[in-house]
C-alpha cells in the first residue's frame, strides 16, 4: 500500500489538481476498494482565491469513495470558528491580527463564497453574509476533519506535536499551531512525522519529521504544492518526471 501526502493547499485549486494528477500518474489506487490512501495535511483555505472550489473537490472525492483523509489545519479552524460565532482572533497569532487580515487571508476565503469584503464591511456584516452563503455541507466537512492520521510508523498532522506528551493528551492548539518546541526536538519521535504549516523551499526531511509545505499559500506570489509518496518509511517526492527519493538531511 502506498500513502500519498499533499501539503497546505490554501485555496489553490489549480495546484491541487496538479498534485492529484502527479499522484494519478504514479499509479495510485485510491478509489473505492483501492489499497492506496491520499492524506491532506490541512490548511485548505485562506490566501488563495478558490477555497470553496478546494473544499468542493475534496468533498466530491470522498463521495466517490476515494481513500482521501483530510486533516484540519489552523486556517481551517479559524474559518470554522468565524462561521460558528464570528470569532476573528486566535491567541497563537503573535501579531494580534484578525483572521480577515490580508496576511492571514480570511477575506480571500469569504470572497470565494461570494461574500463581499472591504474596509466598509463590519465583522458583523461579514459574519451574517458568510452564515448565509457558506453551505452547511462545508461546515460539516470541516467539523469532521481529524487532527491527525496515524499509519503504522507514520504520523500525519498539520503543525506537529509537543515532544514527550502522548498523542491522546496533546493540546489541539499545539497540533495546529506549534513550531519552535517541535522543531527543536532532534531525537526520534514514536513515528516519522509528516506535517505542513511552515513553508520550506522544498520538501525537507529532518530525520524525525518531514515538512511538505512548499508555499502554495505564500504571501505575494504562491510557489507550489507538493505531493509525496510513502512506502512504509521510505519517501519519494512526486514531480512531472516521476518519483525522486527523499532522504534524511534533504532540505
Strand-helix topology:
Elements: E1 3-6, H1 13-25, E2 37-40, H2 51-63, E3 68-70, H3 74-85, H4 106-112, H5 123-133, H6 136-144, E4 148-151, E5 154-157, H7 172-177, H8 180-184, E6 192-195, E7 204-205, E8 209-211, E9 227-231, E10 234-239, E11 242-246
Parallel strand pairs: 1-2, 2-3, 5-6, 6-8
Antiparallel strand pairs: 1-9, 4-5, 7-8, 9-10, 10-11
Backbone structural class: alpha/beta
Total helical segments: 8
- Elements, N to C (H/E): EHEHEHHHHEEHHEEEEEE
Largest sheet: 6 strands, mixed
- In terms of per-residue confidence, which ranges show pLDDT below 50 for 5 or more consecutive residues? none
Rg result:
18 Å
Rounded mean pLDDT score: 96
The strands making up the biggest β-sheet line up spatially as 3-2-1-9-10-11
**What is the CATH class of the domain at 3-74 and 147-246?**
Alpha Beta
CATH topology of the domain at 3-74 and 147-246: Purple Acid Phosphatase, chain A, domain 2
How large a portion of the residues is in β-strands, by DSSP E?
A: 15-25%
The CATH architecture term of the domain at 3-74 and 147-246 is 4-Layer Sandwich
Cα shape: globular
CATH superfamily of the domain at 3-74 and 147-246: Metallo-dependent phosphatases
Into which percent range does the helicity of residues fall?
25-40%
Ends apart, CA distance between termini? 26 Å
| Number of distinct beta strands | 11
